[in-house]
Write a structure and sequence with these properties.
13-stranded antiparallel β-sheet, 29 strands, 4-stranded antiparallel β-sheet, alpha+beta
Length: 686
């Protein structure tokens, strides 16, 4: 079963991926099933009536946390004579509930044997991703009179799935069954509860405090309504903008994840199905994208990342003092240190970006208390940049994994194995330094200088940081500039040789402000030129480079999040037209994905394809793709905090029409912003 014909519902870290009938038949390598806390709690969930599988008439995507399936027995040719219809309505909210309804449309009574096969392989999500299911513990099944208990134990690591029903059922080791008698036009209902339990040391249930069945659907509905009501309202003459914004807002609600230590506060998980957990880089960048709309996510994210900041040297986890985590997992392989994500620190961009988010959040919110609360963590992050990240000793941030078995080779956002190369396609040795991370470090120092001067009472430290930032900017513009191509190299190798390929990373340099103004125009021309810009968006790698591949994960695909920061960078340097061009392409692409931008899509030229080409294994929804339309709105409207007020300087794409964003929250209270795009004269002439 491919991902394209799967149905997905989710609530933060808990999600279900199934067939269009509602059935689950997982294999070790497919992310289908009921998952929570990085563990698959149901791998089989198959409904039959009188021994016959069911077929789908239709499927209702009710909310991100609930779905409804309309089914009949038999094959498609039998539909016209169907005397029974079956409705499966399910909700996921911490755990899982399925409401089963059977309707008899016949003129005579029927007797039915209704069965649900149920099983769990308790696969760790990493085992599914790597297509290796090697369970070292014991899977057990306990049949009780009123429930079925599926379990897995390995030492003090225990996971259980407990299944019960509102109607009397017969439970056995492979599922449960009902005997149902229905008179003509009668209906039968059963409510099935599936509780998931994650038992830690001492028998403590790690899921304590999560919603329980019976209340979760109402709680989720109220929570979603409040989430939408609290966010700014977007109206537009061009319907795609308002509909894409609403889709993004709902997906962002779905991706909110409450870490075990927080007691209900949420931050954005990275993406379904592989990354439904806390990621340093992804969560920070999503918060930066969504600050004008959902600022509460930023405060939680900053606090959680600060609380888990590196405090020691640990080669297995690539941990250093002051380093911000990359990824946190709760499954079996992390618990037994078969992989290092408990947490894992192998990214070099999350640490400077932590400071960038703290400063940007204060500029919007005026939350001085948080800036003071996180002073020591911010100083530790700055020390990491200077003392531990410079592996070569030349003032740049480098990376080389110390965990050579299970650590990440590439610790920048383009973290696939072949994403960093020379122009001839060969891969450079380690350590490596990518260009955008130097920009983040520059931005972090400039922003930290403001925090030190205004809130930490340390003007000397502020002066020092500004000197260091100015020195970094000067050296960077000398060492990374590719004279022949007139752009910045993607990376340097340890000998200072340039990975002299043209990539989308140059747009992040504009966002960070590290580019000398006289060079910005060349970068802007590249970013909307034919080698990088497909018409739908900016490619990760330019057409014509040796490793260019329009469906290569980081070597030619288009990443919506990447484009949103590129557009923001272009606006920073005054290239509003170019920013609007990129925003227009991405928002056009969004309409072909029903307003839900995927993680990535193909980099084929727009004139070749009537619609953007899907990338086969892209996560969807994914947090920083979900945040993309929100940052593009900010960029198009030119929304920037300025001296305690919100400045608005709109520049919309041609033909966009009027956009209004109402009740934008911030230190100014709530304000409105309005903009109108210029008319499309070509269309008027037609």
């Amino acid at each position: 079963m491919g991902q394209s014909n799967t149905i997905r519902i989710l609530d933060g870290n808990t999600f279900v991926v199934c067939e269009d009938t509602g059935d689950i038949e997982a294999t070790p390598s497919e992310p289908t099933g009921l998952f929570s806390l990085d563990t698959r709690f149901l791998s089989t969930w198959v409904l039959t009536v009188n021994g016959e599988r069911l077929n789908s008439l239709s499927f209702d995507d009710l909310q991100y946390f609930e779905s409804r399936f309309f089914l009949v027995p038999g094959m498609a040719t039998h539909y016209v004579d169907a005397k029974l219809s079956i409705i499966r309505e399910r909700t996921v909210g911490g755990s899982f509930r399925e409401q089963l309804t059977i309707l008899n449309h016949d003129e005579k009574p029927v007797d039915l044997e209704v069965r649900m096969d149920a099983a769990s392989d308790f696969a760790d999500l990493f085992q599914v991703k790597d297509e290796i299911l090697n369970k070292k513990g014991e899977i057990y099944t306990e049949v009780e009179s009123d429930r079925l208990r599926l379990g897995y134990r390995r030492g003090n690591f225990r996971r259980e799935t407990v299944i019960s029903s509102s109607m009397s059922a017969r439970y056995d080791s492979k599922g449960f069954a009902y005997t149902v008698h229905l008179e003509p036009n009668e209906q039968w209902d059963a409510s099935i509860d599936v509780q998931t339990h994650a038992v830690g040391p001492g028998g403590r249930d790690l899921r304590f405090g999560l919603r329980t069945h019976g209340t979760e659907r109402l709680a989720l509905q109220h929570d979603l309504e409040k989430w939408i009501a609290d966010a700014p309202k977007v109206n537009s003459e061009h319907g795609r903008v308002a509909s894409t914004y609403r889709r993004s807002l709902i997906d962002l609600a779905a991706l909110r994840f409450s870490p075990l230590s927080l007691g209900g506060a949420t931050l954005p998980a990275a993406g379904l199905p592989w990354f439904m957990t806390m990621f340093g880089r992804d969560s920070i960048l999503t918060c930066l994208q969504t600050l004008p709309f959902t600022p509460q996510l930023s405060k939680t994210t900053l606090r959680v990342l600060a609380s888990l900041q590196g405090s020691r040297f640990d080669d297995f986890r690539d941990e250093d003092p002051g380093r911000i985590l990359h990824e946190m997992r709760y499954g079996e392989t992390a618990a037994f240190e078969e992989q290092p994500h408990s947490p894992y620190y192998g990214s070099v961009d999350a640490t400077p970006l932590f400071i960038v988010l703290l400063d940007e959040y204060e500029r919007w919110s005026g939350d001085v208390a948080l800036v003071k609360e996180l002073e020591q963590e911010s100083r530790a992050a700055l020390r990491w940049i200077d003392n531990y990240a410079d592996l070569v000793g030349n003032g740049y941030i480098w990376y080389e994994r110390r965990n050579t078995d299970t650590g990440l080779e590439n610790q920048c956002w383009k973290d696939s194995w072949d994403s960093i190369s020379y122009s001839d396609g060969t891969l450079p040795p380690f350590p490596r330094a990518t260009c955008e991370v130097q920009g983040y470090a520059y931005d972090a120092k400039v922003r930290a200088a403001r925090l030190a001067r205004e809130f930490w009472g340390d003007p000397e430290f502020a002066d020092q940081l500004e000197r260091e930032a100015a020195d970094l900017k000067e050296r960077f513009n000398r060492d990374w500039w590719v004279e022949e191509g007139e752009y910045f190299a993607l990376a340097l190798d340890p000998d200072g040789r340039q990975c002299d390929i043209l990539s989308s990373n140059i747009g992040h340099l504009l966002w960070s402000g590290i580019v000398e103004p006289e060079r910005a125009e060349k970068l802007a021309a590249h970013l909307v030129g034919p080698r990088l810009f497909s018409g739908w968006g900016v490619r990760t790698l330019a057409e014509g480079e040796t490793r260019y591949n329009p469906i290569g994960y980081h070597n030619g695909t288009i990443w919506p999040f990447d484009n949103s920061f590129i557009a923001w960078g272009l606006r920073r340097y005054g290239f509003a037209e170019e920013a609007a061009t990129i925003a227009n392409g991405i928002l056009d692409a969004a309409t072909y994905f029903d307003g839900r931008l995927p993680e990535a899509f193909g980099g084929y030229p727009r004139e070749l394809t009537k619609f953007p080409v899907e990338y086969p294994t892209a996560c969807s929804p994914q947090a920083w793709s979900t945040g993309t339309p929100l940052l593009l709105l900010r960029t198009m409207l030119g929304l920037e905090p300025h001296e305690g007020h919100l400045a608005v300087e709109p520049r919309l794409p041609v033909g966009m029409g009027r956009i209004e964003v109402l009740d934008i929250p911030g230190r100014w209270g709530r304000v409105d912003a309005f903009a109108r795009g210029r008319l499309d004269l070509d269309k008027l002439a037609d």
